[in-house]
## 1
Amino acid sequence: MDFIFKILSVTFGTNLHTMLRAVIVDDEPKAIQGLSWELSNFNEDIEVIETFTEAEKAIKYINENDIDCLFLDIEMPTMDGFQLLEKLDNKDFAIIITTAYNEYAIKALKNQAIDYLLKPIDSDDLEETIGRIKLHHKKYNNTEKVEKILSSFNKKFNRRKITINTDGKLVFLSEDEILFVESDGNYSTIYTSGNKKIVVTKKLKEIDSLLPEDHFFRIHNSYIINLNKIKEFLKSDGYVVLENNHKIPVSRQRKSDFLEKF
């Protein structure tokens, strides 16, 4: 275990300055121009790498590229900012809502936004927001590094532990503890054999990539099950029954693959 702590020490002891990559999405070109000018002239930490006036183009770019923060307008034609967020594969970056309307504040928080800027954007408010972006980036980067290091350690020494990041902490679960995982949009809930529920801000496909495929199977668009926890398969009803008597539907598209796996 000593070498892990040495790696962590080296990882977090290194403090190289890196520019944070920003994307601006707003249907008003003048708003984009003004915010880009503020960011480029009054700080040395954020680089605007792309701007978009069309939501669909922004979605494609964000899903295909790594970014650190997104400045997002809400009131846009064809698709509003919240609908855009729903179409993103992940939201590992800082989200900042920029709008002329103040009634979206609560919804912004529910969509994991770290800040909310009212137009016209005040320079002092923007400076505070940049501080929050830096803090978010530091926290996310450190957590991601820890997860990768521990995942590598588990694989190297055949430790069958799954590392879950939730509520600002890392939870370590053995694969035998997990009964099933249920999707809830951008969130997932992990159900364990101890009747516990762990809610994480990851989509189901992200959780699926963390679980060993020899023991887990995505049986439905909304569910991943532990194959070792199946008690019954109700062929006529299209359900599996787990050890805790929870019934999980088997999707028609995945039924043949499930039977082959099972």
## 2
Amino acid sequence: MKKGLRQLLRSKTGTLGAVIVLIVCLIAIFAPLLATHDPNAVAPIDRLKPPAWLEGGSGDYLLGTDNLGRDIWSRIVYGSQVSLIVGIGAVLVSGAIGAVLGVTAAYYGRWVDAVIMRLADSLLAIPTILLMLVVLAVVGPGMWTLIFVIGATNWVSYARVVRGEVLSLKERDFVKSARMIGARSGRIIFRHILPNVMSSFIVLSGMNVATTIIMEASLSFLGLGITTPDVSWGGMLSDGRQYVATSWWVATFPGMAITITVLGVIFLGDWLRDVLDPRMKLKNG
């Protein structure tokens, strides 16, 4: 633990990423305490008020209000919950599916491997965003639906990475020895193979959280992601796009929230790659 903390502090981008992610997590956890208004409370009389420091602004609305008079700061605070839940939840779903299919394909090989990999190739041939749009249009929008749809359509990268790792590991002496003494396949997979795959899995998961947050924002922007009463940064961007020229704050602050959060996750993911990826250790060492 101490060694990992020292390595993190030596990396400027890693430290910055960790600080950003920590702040976003704290904002999401303490959203009811940090929000100054109900994020869905409509106040037509206060619509399109500028931020507090600009002329015409009000101390009651730190970052101003949107076209319905809703407090932008409070909506950004509650939007952080949605971004983290969808980002982490979808990665857990896609990671679990990809890990199971990748291990199964590599360990059992033959027709099992062929079927799973051809399924993965078929999914790669279809634009992911188009597939998600079709499914969400049929099933309907919603946070948990979005988590499942993103997770179920983004497992291919996990399956390929895990499969490659397992193909190498299953030829190692310690796996062959376990097989020779009669260890069952389940024990070999969970005791000897999966622990050695986890570093690559964690690195890939960390990077995919950033991608998933952008996917969620994109789908919400198009009206097929998060719906009221949940608040989405992508939905806030959609609400503010027609006011960019006159009331820039409506779209700018949600966009900044997405950008800063994604950069924080990417910086932290880069640090995780440098620490956990053996190839990067050899390159740096």
## 3
Amino acid sequence: MKHYIGAGNPMHAQFEAKAPYAAKHFAWHYEAGVGTITLNRPERKNPLTFDSYAELRDLFRALTYATDVKAIVVTGAGGNFCSGGDVHEIIGPLTGMRMPELLEFTRMTGDLVKAIRHCPQPIVGAIDGVCAGAGAMIALACDLRYGSPATRTAFLFTRVGLAGADMGACALLPRVIGQGRASELLFTGRAMTAQEGQAWGFFNALHESDALLEAATKVARELAEGPSFAHGMTKTMLSQEWSMTIDQAIEAEAQAQAICMQTEDFKRAYEAFAAKRKPVFGGD
């Protein structure tokens, strides 16, 4: 979960703002508590490279400590989200690597999904056009996903002779859309239409392409204005309770909620309700 570190806290310097961050392999924008990551190689439908994988992993890890960033949007430039690993810059070189090197690569790609899931801020995907391979896994790792009627999502690993088990797909996808539907997509590699994705629960909603990023950003801003410590607790519990029994989950939530009841945000919400005004949360 996310802890608020105030300016007077001696640890504050360790929780540096990410607003001035200068990304090298994608675009980064920060405004009003929302950080936006834009995959920006539109001429190739925004594929990933070894470098962009690593930088994305490192940024999501660093965002754990960025108390100024309350929510994150992930999107792609040029009408597409992400076409997956670059055929020439990743797949080609992989065919010449030996097992230890290949394992380093597959662990790095998995570390990106881990970093997204461990990042305490809510992460909103604005997913247009092509969303394939590793791009589909980045979308799947987001907490909320918004698509357009043009979105086509494909876990196409089998199309290149690989298992559908990649970057946590066999664990995450069945939990989102169900075992049977996930099995079909992971075995066949076929594209899931936007309409299927919405009906199956992959997408929270669909918006026209020209309104998609604005709609996703609006959701992120609303989340950023909410109780960020409590949001982090919610994300933590959504992840941890996958491996718990019902009794364990109920007890874990009792403890989690008791912790949240000690926050200033809980008091702020009560005081605002009593005064019939909208609460202004501080994240502490």
## 4
Amino acid sequence: MAKVSKYTSKQPDENGVIHWSEDENKIWSELVTRQLACIEGKACDEYLEGLKKINLPHDRIPQLSELNAVLKNTTGWQVTPVPALIDFDEFFRLLANKQFPVATFIRSREEFDYLQEPDIFHEIFGHCAMLTNSDFAEFTHKYGQLGYAAEKKDRVYLARMYWFTVEFGLMQTERGLRIYGGGILSSPGETEYVYSRTPEINPMNVLDVLRTPYRIDIMQPVYYTINSIHDLFDISQLDIMALVEKAKQLGLFEAKFPPKEKIAS
């Protein structure tokens, strides 16, 4: 059964402009202000450099055309509006074509602190700055190509690689632990949690990543670190599908979290 979102993405008008309400712009402004303070001293340099390039407005939700002008000139990527939820086929197809999907809705005040599905704040604030970096952009592009060509049973393994890099990736630097994953960068709770000494933080090993279970609705019990953003480019050059085959043979690691409770129908 397909997941259903309670949110509806806004459609651009004939000029490609999305018309946001005053309250939606205010929610954006409050989210950006809060999260910029939260990631100070924690976000990686590449993210902060990208943030300067995309020059996000703080008082309103940016138009996708504003982001596309910057992304086109840096890495050739674009953001493209999508419904609140898309399937794996479309997700991989877009990434394979250097198009980053952005669901054009913003969370309600009731879900201000936590939202399971990615909204425009998560996608833009969390990911777009990193897409100005050539190593990160190439990794994401190669990932899309692999995923689009992969069989359904292999995509589950690839999803883990995306989860522990693009969404929840960390970097060890000379100045300490830094964040590059958009799932952390856009979440105050996850940002603080990473530095709480509670989670297990391991050096990046692609085979281990492919074998690590995760849940989307909890704080992550384990994260993986790269040493520089160029490590992602190096990973993109590996025979990842051969590693997927090896991961399938070895099996998954034991989950470090309880199973999700099933809701009685």
